[in-house]
Specification:
By secondary structure, the chain is α/β, with parallel strands linked by helices. Helix content is 34%, strand content 22%. Helix 7 packs parallel to helix 13 and helix 12 runs parallel beside helix 13. The protein is globular. The relative contact order is 0.13.
Length: 501
């Protein structure tokens, strides 16, 4: 069987997830529905039940419909079948204990549906003619609100948790829920899912540095530490002190220089954002610095800023109010890649009264979880927070784990090459035959487990050594969602800090 997923009228955000995952898919030819049975699965979010009924009549395999609850209800009412709906907890599809544990938890995704927060994630399945129709009830428009941010607390094993103002919707978990729904449907047919790796090697470490409000000495000390451990970092420069730019940043070797700000502010209009960027770029240009990347003050993002980023010619940007702890993606109708990071800095840990040893333990846990998930570890730091003893322990741990180290721009280059490289494969009994090999590591998901490798042109997927896969990052929803009076204090501090700029 020539493996492909057919897509019909899907939302741009759903297409974004398929591209992030590196899953091979193609648009269904609406003029030739007779060919749709070549697909292993069809995914649609089309809200016209008559068209879904037409697909159902022609198609003899599995259909995944992703729609808001009100459309799902309307579709169920109009669907010509007497077979009752079956609500299926995802964990019932797997015998794998770790997968069952992950999916049985009471809270999975930080997104809202028509009836409030989803506290228990299930899939609705309908038997219709020769195929199963699976209904995943998510409002994609509501779930992907990149222009909304709020303060969130982040998981740890101690009582007081660190927090940061980040994107309101946890796109990371929505992506994982959709991925695992696809995995479950394919596994019910004894089919593995093959997609592209998220990183070029077994593990990847990227270190981002925001230089706002730091002195030359503070930046210099951090640079020396990077040199000591051969860490190629990405420095996002503010242009407040031109002398530091001339005497330090412009002379740095083996480091990437990006742009942060002229004034440490993000504005609610295009003109001021554009002028703030252009003012700083003109100073950097005087010293021969031509940054390819941008990171906004406070990690803030809005559509006006995005337009200014695009007009300024940046190739990528990184704002955790847009997305965080996730894979790279493109804002809608933009060619500037967003590279999300883990948004908790040493400064945020300090505000939550972490000792230095607790800070080190926190970052080591984040690194381990990201390595287990085959995802990039992207941490960030402000030189004016000092704490070089903590950063040094992070660097030592990175070296101990033998992690590949790239700058953010180098990762951007690799990711865009990954996007262009085609993956096509054929399934024949228990063998996978690669017709188009992208020449990067590939992921095979099967039976709730995962294996990652540079596979040859053919492989027996049932004979591979699969490992249990942590589908979601650790969390403790009851504690993370609990109201914290300190949020008022942090909000005041942020307001006060902006007034001084």
């Amino acid at each position: 069987m020539d493996f492909k997923i057919g897509i019909f009228s899907i939302h741009p955000f759903l297409e974004m997830i398929l591209k992030q995952e590196g899953i091979p898919f193609e648009d269904i030819d609406q003029d030739n529905f007779e060919l749709i049975n070549k697909y292993a699965l069809i995914i649609t979010d089309y809200d016209e039940s008559d068209m879904i009924e037409l697909i159902s009549e022609k198609f003899h395999n599995e259909i995944l419909v992703i729609n808001p609850t009100y459309i799902a209800k309307r579709y169920f009412e109009l669907l010509k079948t007497r077979t009752p709906r079956i609500t299926i907890p995802l964990s019932e599809f797997y015998k794998n204990p770790s997968f069952k544990s992950a999916l049985d938890r009471s809270f999975l995704a930080d997104f809202y549906g028509d009836s409030g927060l989803f506290k228990d994630y299930k899939v609705i399945r309908i038997k219709n003619n020769n195929e199963n129709i699976y209904m995943l009830s998510i409002s994609l428009e509501e779930s992907f609100l990149f222009d909304k941010s709020c303060r969130k607390q982040f998981f740890d094993f101690r009582k007081e948790l660190p927090s940061e103002v980040v994107g309101k919707k946890y796109i990371y978990e929505i992506r994982n829920i959709i991925l695992q729904t696809i995995n479950i449907i394919l596994y019910s047919k004894n089919i593995p899912l093959i997609h592209k790796s998220y990183i070029p090697q077994n593990s990847l470490f990227i270190f981002r540095i925001d230089t706002d409000f730091c002195t030359k000495e503070e930046a210099e000390n951090l640079y020396k530490l990077c040199q000591k451990y051969d860490i190629k970092a990405t420095w996002f420069l503010d242009t407040y002190n031109e002398k530091t730019i001339r005497e330090l940043y412009a002379k740095m070797a083996d480091q990437e220089l990006g742009f942060h700000c002229s004034r440490h502010l993000v504005f609610d209009n295009y003109e001021e954002n554009f002028q703030n960027i252009q003012s700083g770029l003109s100073i950097l240009k005087k010293h021969g610095i031509k940054p390819k990347g941008y990171a906004a003050p406070f990690g803030e993002w809005n559509s006006y800023l995005q337009k200014a980023i695009e007009k300024s010619g940046f190739l990528y940007s990184s704002e955790f109010s847009y997305d965080y702890d996730n894979l790279p993606s493109y804002p809608i109708a933009s060619n500037v890649l967003q590279i999300p990071i883990h948004p908790i800095s040493c400064g945020r840990l300090r505000r939550s009264h972490y000792t230095d040893n607790e800070k080190i333990a926190y970052y080591k846990r984040v690194i381990d979880e990201k390595i287990d998930r085959n995802e990039p570890v992207i941490l960030y730091h402000h030189p004016h927070h000092k704490k070089l003893n903590v950063i040094e322990e992070i660097f030592r741990y990175v070296k101990l784990k033998k992690m590949q180290n790239l700058t953010m721009n180098n990762y951007r280059i690799w990711w865009q090459k990954r996007e262009k490289r085609k993956l096509e494969y054929v399934l024949n009994k228990d063998k996978i035959f690669l017709q188009k090999n992208p020449k990067i590591p590939l992921i095979i998901d099967y039976e709730g487990k995962r294996v990652i490798d540079n596979f040859s042109e053919s492989v027996k997927y049932k004979d591979l050594e699969y490992k249990n896969y942590p589908f979601f990052l650790k969390n403790d929803p009851k504690r993370q969602e609990k109201w914290n009076w300190r949020n008022w204090l942090y909000k005041y501090e942020s307001w006060k800090g902006r007034r001084k700029v």
